[in-house]
Design a protein that fits this description.
Elements (H helix, E strand, L loop, with lengths): L15 E2 L13 E11 L3 E5 L8 E6 L3 E8 L2 E6 L2 E6 L3 E3 L6 E2 L2 E4 L3 E5 L8 E6 L3 E8 L2 E6 L2 E6 L3 E4 L19 E7 L6 E10 L2 E11 L5 E2 L9 E2 L1 E10 L10 E3 L4 E4 L10 E3 L9 E3 L7 E5 L14 E4 L8 E3 L1 H10 L7 E6 L7
Parallel strand pairs: 17-30, 20-21, 22-23, 28-29
Antiparallel strand pairs: 1-19, 2-5, 2-8, 2-9, 3-4, 5-6, 6-7, 10-13, 10-16, 11-12, 13-14, 14-15, 17-18, 18-19, 22-27, 22-30, 24-25, 24-26, 27-28
């Protein structure tokens, strides 16, 4: 990285996009339960939000050991019934209570020529509309012999006798077309609309049972001048390319990453003096003539982060101190996002899965 610019809003929380859940007939499929199940809160206090992400407002809270009725799962969030309304809680802080974890949902196809959609799970409930043969339904849960569905923005129920489950092909992910990943089973993808923008999209992917799954999507920032065609020291641009991931670091104790972790001290610096034999390495003060320029590591931007293994040959002038770290405005050559997202990614990264980070304008992803 380089020094961050004045005015950086380090504490701002970025909006996080999550895997689409249920919502429309024939729409994207999330994860569902065969029926509503009970989960127990494991955190001392857990916020309930209006949507599946920390960018959504808090509508209340639940406490440790409280039982929750989980309707469905969207990414890393559980949709629950909360005081008569819909709420969402992080799946990291609840535990299934004697139930089976969520399985991948399937698309259901209507087999009857016309099938009534009712307001409740039974023929005694009023019809609120109908669906026709061949129509695709996204099922939320099952109650007896009735499927609960989302129907034109409201809840409806259809008889399970007249719909048939059919496996739905997972949508193709951008990493599915990459040819240069080798044995990497975790990928952090940082993209921008073009070379000149400082705004970035950060996505993480993991290969599970031979298939790529998307884990996270977040907003991020690049160098003040965007991506570099050819990175040089002090150019205020972030390098493009595919890189391995180095040491994780932070000014506090290890947040739970499996990467090698180094706690920053007041004497830690990263040498950016191109004429020094220690160029692009982590060192400790005092310099004692070993360099004339080095970046202080003990700053809020480096509360948490990891080294992007750029310019490992330490070619003078080609750029130094390229990190993934905390930040929400722009950097001088690194990639940054909110502290919450940095910690989440650090916890997710596993060196045994040979993680890599790819940074590129969208138009050049075919290189990978």
């Amino acid at each position: 990285m380089k020094k961050l610019m004045v005015g950086m809003a380090l504490t701002a929380t970025l909006a996080t996009a999550v895997t689409p859940g249920f919502g429309s007939i024939g729409g994207n499929q999330g994860k569902a339960y065969a029926a509503t199940v009970t989960y127990k809160v494991t955190a001392s206090k857990l916020n309930v939000r209006s949507g599946a992400g920390t960018n959504y407002g808090i509508i209340g809270s639940v406490v440790k050991d409280q039982m929750l009725s989980v309707v469905s799962k969207s990414g890393s969030w559980y949709k629950i019934n909360y005081s008569g309304r819909t709420g969402y809680v992080s799946s990291d802080y609840v535990q299934a209570s004697g139930t089976t974890p969520p399985a991948e949902s399937t698309t259901y196809t209507v087999t009857a020529s016309t099938l009534n959609v009712r307001s409740g799970a039974g023929t005694s409930y009023a019809s609120i509309g109908s669906v026709t043969k061949g129509q695709k339904l996204s099922v939320v849960s099952k109650s007896g012999s009735w499927y609960k569905i989302n129907y034109n923005g409201r809840t409806g129920y259809v008889s399970s006798d007249y719909v048939q489950a059919s496996a739905t092909a997972s949508p193709k992910l951008v990493v599915d077309s990459f040819k240069t990943l080798g044995n990497a089973q975790q990928v952090i993808l940082v993209t921008a609309d073009n070379y000149d923008t400082k705004s970035a999209k950060i996505q993480t992917f993991e290969k599970v049972d031979g298939k790529w799954k998307q884990v996270l999507t977040a907003n991020g920032v690049l160098g003040q001048k965007g991506f570099a065609l050819s990175k040089k020291e002090g150019d205020m641009e972030s390098p493009t390319g595919k890189y391995t991931i180095g040491t994780a670091f932070g000014r506090y104790e290890n947040p739970g990453t499996k990467l090698p972790y180094r706690k920053i001290t007041a004497n830690d610096v990263w040498v950016d003096d191109s004429k020094s034999s220690l160029y692009n390495t982590w060192q400790q003060k005092p310099a004692n003539g070993r360099w004339t320029s080095a970046e202080n590591m003990d700053i809020p931007a480096y509360d948490y982060g990891f080294v992007i293994n750029y310019n490992e040959s330490r070619t003078p002038g080609n750029g130094s101190a390229i990190f993934f770290h905390v930040g929400t405005n722009y950097t001088a050559g690194c990639t940054a996002t909110s502290k919450e997202q940095v910690v989440s990614i650090l916890k997710w990264l596993n060196p045994e899965k040979n993680p890599v980070i790819i940074q590129s304008p969208v138009s050049e992803l075919d290189k990978y």
